[in-house]
Amino acid sequence: MAGLCKSLRFLTVQSGIRISLKANPAPFALKFRNLNTSSVLLKNDHDSDDEGAKGWFGRRKKATQPEQSHSMALSSKETVYEMQFHAVKPEYMEEYINQFATFQKLMKDKGTGADLVGSFTVEIGDQDEAVHIWQYPGGYPVLNKANDIYRTDSDFVEFRKKRNMMLRSRRNQIVLAFSFWPQIQPREPSHIYELRSYTLKPGTLYEWGSCWANGIKHRQTNNEPVAGYFTHIGNLNCCEHIWAYKDLQTRKETREAAWNRPGWDQCVSYTVPLIRHMKSRILIPTPFSPLQ
């Protein structure tokens, strides 16, 4: 009896699928498109009939894995970056910004080799948070040198005493720049910046990069791409994308326009299933930020 019921249920579902496909096949196919997340590219339309008979899953083509580490394949370690996230006590935010303006000058005057490429406060997101991005041309030797000076120089020791009283928490992470993103450059006033943070499923970073290497071409109409990073030390399997817009309305119009370009929908369709967690912040540049 149980076996008979099971067979009847199967026939009912199978019949329902046939009806759905005849009525509206496109949305149904789209649902199936997102079930598998291990591949990023489709084979060309002129694949053989034998391969076509295997169905959509058979035509999916897995991104070719590099013969080296993903970090080496996607970036260069000649320059490393540090992203700092400081949660500031609300009553100290103004004083904190003034102190950090002095600190970033000290980093240059002391010959640390570190360059501040972006400095922001969060407008939308975690309130009373500051985000700073440092560049270390020359890679880890320059980073090590900067850290040695920062730990031992008396001016920096004094700065840390004052700064730490103003913070609720802080964290940092070392990141590498995706090679296919534009080189980060100073920008003239005035912009808002969006920092989009993605935590990926382990093992999918190379797939993510393969998709975005094509997808970013559809997001350059207003020169909005600023920088794209992936974490190398700290919270792993994370990507950080930074975009510049004139204002929130321009952001809305730019993002909506991307959907009218063939290929952007594929980038979204293939990368969204790779994400475990995502976060967006709207950032305002500090007065001394090279990105304005």
Can you describe this structure?
- This protein is of the alpha+beta class and 292 residues long.
- Helix content is 40%, strand content 28%.
- The protein has 11 helices and 10 strands.
- Strands 3-5-4-10-7-9-8-6 form an 8-stranded antiparallel beta barrel, surrounded by 4 helices.
- Helix 1 packs across helix 2 (25-33), helix 6 (93-109) runs antiparallel to helix 8 and helix 9 packs antiparallel against helix 11 (264-271).
- The radius of gyration is 24 Å and the shape is globular.
Strand content: 25-35%
Order of helices and strands: HHEHHEHEHEEHHEEHEEHHE
Radius of gyration: 24 Å
Describe the global form. Answer: globular
Q: Which consecutive residue ranges, at least 5 long each, have pLDDT under 50?
A: 4-61
Major β-sheet profile: 8 strands, antiparallel, barrel
Structural class: alpha+beta
Mean pLDDT: 82
Kindly state the number of beta strands.
10
What is the helix content? 40-55%
Distance between the termini: 72 Å
How are the strands ordered across the major sheet? 3-5-4-10-7-9-8-6
The count of helical stretches stands at 11
Which features would summarize this protein structure in a list?
eight-stranded antiparallel beta barrel; 10 strands; two-stranded antiparallel ribbon; single chain; 292 residues; globular; 40% helix; alpha+beta
Topology overview:
Blueprint (H helix, E strand, L loop, with lengths): L1 H22 L1 H9 L7 E2 L6 H4 L3 H4 E2 L8 H5 L4 E10 L4 H17 L5 E10 L4 E9 L2 H13 L1 H13 E11 L14 E9 L4 H11 L9 E9 L4 E8 L2 H11 L5 H8 L3 E11 L7
Helix pairs in contact: 1-2, 6-8, 9-11
